[in-house]
Amino acid sequence: MKWWWSVLVRVEESPTVFLDKNIFPDDWSNANTLRTNFHDDAFWYPSLSTGNDGTVTFEVTYPDDITSWNANFIAVGGRRQTDKAQLNIRSFKPLNAQLSLPQFAFLNDSLTVIGRLTNHLDNTVKIKRSIEWQGHTSEETLSLLNSHVDTIPLLANEPDSVSITYSMTMENGYFDGERRTIPVYRPGILESQGEFVVLGDTVSRRFRTHPDLGKVTVHAEASAMQSFLDEIEKIDRYPYLCNEQVASKIKALLLKKRICPMFGMEFKEDNKIRSLIRRLERNKNSENLWGWWNQDKTELWISKQIVEAMIDAEADGYKVNLNKQGASDALIRELNRRLSTVSNASGDSFIKHELMDLLELLRKLDTKIDYTQYFRLVSSLPDITVNDQLRSMQISLLLDINDKPQIDSLLNLSSETMLGSIYWEEVGKEGESPRR
After folding, report:
1. Closest CA to 157 of 190, 114, 189, 110
2. Pairing between strand 147-155 and 110-119?
3. Cβ 46 vs Cβ 39: under 8 Å
4. Parallel, antiparallel, or unpaired: how do β-strands 161-170 and 175-185 relate?
């Protein structure tokens, strides 16, 4: 069965912009309006219904931009039949004045705005060109054959916005022009100040606010788990998709899947996880590992992040195409290479940490090597930071090494958060901030 549909669009000419240069009316010189309504989109009607004859009509007022518009129409039938069509509409004026300017400015920026006069008629016309900006006015009488360009300097010294008007007037009274506004922002970054407090059942808390900081928002949650979900949503909405971020999204969504039942929520993002897994599978390089982007050279810390995400996803029942043997072979070669050159990397403060990461990644891939021997070679390297000591202890427990970790000495260096969690920080030189 073939299905027909049609959309009838009646486009009425506005007094300022004609739709086709071949059909503008004889009284075009009466279309005198300062154009101020500029948009990238003209109309959006998502709920139109055709009549019995299969047509629908609607009226549209286009913005004042002199440009070419693409109108897209999508039709859906009662049995979900679909079709689409596109209509191209050109707005046009035979004589016009237009501005080209930045979309925004920072306070005290120096800007250059371009004004252009265009004549599409077959003869030279005499016009008066006017510019108004920041209390200044400039007028000039010109003989215009094709076009004329003005370069207009602006200083964004207003705290909110700056406006400029550019226009032309003929002797017969015909007028065209544009008034545009540039938003002005203050330089710097937006900073938020606040407090995070855990309150018991009978605890009261008085918050002190600074009146110069403006609006204050108080947000309270009955469970800290909701804050955790909010952080997961931030990771999920992060717009960039380098390999490391894709792995982070997978890890975050897997955690969300475990949390949702606690709130009686349905987890609806299985397909998103599968799509992210497929992206990582496509992006692996010839070593069956990963770099920053598609088939990029190997970055070990990124590969570790991705392998962890893939293994976690596989454990949760997702289909994962992870070449563990190929990845293991590449990691063993890298581990041996680094151990053979470690004497030449005495000034590298990260070498011990990276070697421990390699051992952990090999264990996650269930690689068959002598972990005790490799661990003793790596752990014999000097500890540059407290983190090196912590990693050595962590890896010895992960690999089930018999060497007993020196836990007491490490606990003496720990600090405690308001929630009772333990953390460690590097003790920097005098005047330096500690590194956690």
Report:
1. 110
2. antiparallel
3. no
4. antiparallel
In contact, 19 and 69? CB cutoff 8 Å? no
C-alpha to C-alpha distance for 357 and 306, rounded to whole angstroms: 13
pLDDT given at position 162 = 92
For the entire predicted model, the pTM comes to 0.51
Closest CA to 321 of 306, 332, 339: 306
Beta bridge partners of 308: none
Question: Within 13 Å, how many C-alpha atoms sit on residue 143's CB side?
Answer: 2
Chain center to CA of 74: 28
- At residue 425, the 3 state secondary structure works out as coil
Coil, helix or strand at residue 88: strand
Other CB atoms within 10 A of residue 322 CB: 19
Does residue 331 contact residue 358 with C-beta atoms inside 8 Å? yes
185 CB-contact burial (10 Å; exposed 0-12 / middle 13-18 / buried 19+): middle
DSSP state of 160: S
CA dist 115 and 180 (Å) reads 11
Strand-pair partners of 177: 34, 167
Whole-angstrom Cα distance, residue 315 to residue 312? 5
Encode pLDDT of 72-121 as tens digits.
888 888 777 888 888 888 887 888 999 999 999 999 999 999 999 999 88
Place of tokens 């893939």: 310
Three-class SS of 96-145: EEEEECCCCEECCCEEEEEEEEEECCCCCEEEEEEEEECCEEEEEEEEEC
Which of 391, 386, 376, 377 is closest to 343 using CA atoms? 377
Radius of gyration of the chain (CA): 33
Residue where the block lists tokens 């909010």: 230
Cβ atoms 330, 337 nearer than 8 A: no
Token pair belonging to 398: 């992960």
The answer to whether the Cα torsion of 257, 262, 265, 266 is positive or negative is positive
C-alpha 88, offset from chain centre: 31
Q: How far apart are the first and last CA of the chain?
A: 69
Mean pLDDT of the chain: 80
Alpha helices by DSSP H, 137-242? 224-237
Asked if residue 290 lies in contact with residue 304, where contact means CB atoms within 8 angstroms, the answer is no
Q: From the CB of residue 298, how many other CB atoms can be counted at a distance below 10 Å?
A: 18
Tell me how far apart the alpha carbons of residues 274 and 269 are, in angstroms, rounded to a whole number.
9
